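Pasting as-is:
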Amino acid sequence: MLHETRRGVAEVVACSAEATVLGISPGMPLAEVAAIPSATSNFPGEQGSAKRVQGSGFRVQTGKFTANAHGQRPVGEQLVGKTPMATPQPAILPYDPPADREALETLAERCGRFSPMVAMEDAATPDSLLLDVTGLAHLFGGEISLAEKIVEDFHCNGLIARVAIADTIGTAWAVAHFSSSWGRPSSSFLVVPPGESLAALRPLPIEALRLPEKVVDLLHQLGVDRIEQLEALPRRELSSRFGPELLRRWDQAIGRLAEPVPAHQPTPEFRADWSPPQPTARKETIEAALEQLIRQVVATLIRSDRGVVRLECRLDGSGALPEDLTVGLFEPSVSAKHLFQLVQLHLERVRLRAPVSAVHVAAAVTAPLIHRQQAMFFCGDGNDSSRQRSRQLAALVDRLSSRLGRRAVVRARIVSDAQPELAWQRDPLLQGLRRRRRRKSLPADLPPRPLRLLRRPIALPATSIVPDGPPLRFHLGRHEHEVTHTWGPERIETGWWRGRTVGRDYYRIETATGRRFWLFRRLRDGRWFLHGTYE
């Protein structure tokens, strides 16, 4: 039995079949559990020998979609809830979400033998795995044979697996969690025939649609308990009454809306771990451990002729959520000193919630090292200083991104848009080498653009002889500017699909004082605006 403190009250989070027989159930306060005579022998403080079996009760969802495994434990032991116990009487242990997630990640890597696309359930405390086996069943002798092999593989590793295969993730997840067929002693897997997703969903409770708790509560208040009752409601009213999430989950479950499988990233190849003899909160000790682990990872990378692009560090604390420190780099690096300095910048902002019991460092993203020929003599041709500036720029970007955040250090990128203020956007410099876009330039046939573009065009009074012609003079602030030269017009218009149409005639203006401006006349009302300056 597992317990956790919620809103200041220690409650049961999950329990085994033995605990259920004693009258214990999830959500019960530990004070009530203590009043049960048969349960007090293993109450916290009175038991010291009971050990928790590694792993948790979780479902492994596979596809065409989905398998469901329930709890790592000795084979043959009954299981209700999340974590089984090895003793006949339920031991009472603290709930450890990080340990559950780590066990689930281990299972995800093992499931790679059945599908190249394995994902963990998208939830705060996931208990399921999703496997996309579309087009793979014939390799195992069919869908039934595939389900049997998954069940057998889990059984050999001390797990009772429940497997459901269906056309969609939503249907497979729902059947794996809520199908009444699991009550049969011989049931270990279910295969929903193609095209039968809706029929399989109808008798299930609405919780099977993975809806937010508040939506489920509202549906229950209205007397909607099963999916077949929900199906009878007018579709056009569901979104307005219950929000967009209801229709999204419903459409995903029946295959009307695609649901991608977020692939599980396997454990990085380049990693190092350290556990102190006693949990520690001393920053000096933690920094020393991080520095040593980074050196170990870098040494492995050098032998593989690869450099770090993204470094991930994790500090595990006793009874607390782990602290994650992620460092992104502008270009691959194997400088342990530089990497440690970037990690230090992150560590300065971390306030440890509990003493650190383990430190993990991994090179999550790597790339081939960039080798440059070093000059023996200074040639004075500018190449040496250019390479030096490039290295300094990369180091500056790394430090700024570590200090301010990866998305805070940006560069402008040209995008294809007729409207000038929308023809560019900011992109983070640290996006990973594979995601960096090729730089674009303005088309050669476009008139010159101003160096400074105002965030919003400024309306200004202007005088022109011809109604649709260039201005003769205009007022900007307290000053009147007389126009001596004009170039244009350059007409810019947007399509009807953008909503309110934008139509402008742009002019490049030179005044009597030699200053140059970028003005436009709005076509729908003839008003003039300043949009940029040439400097």
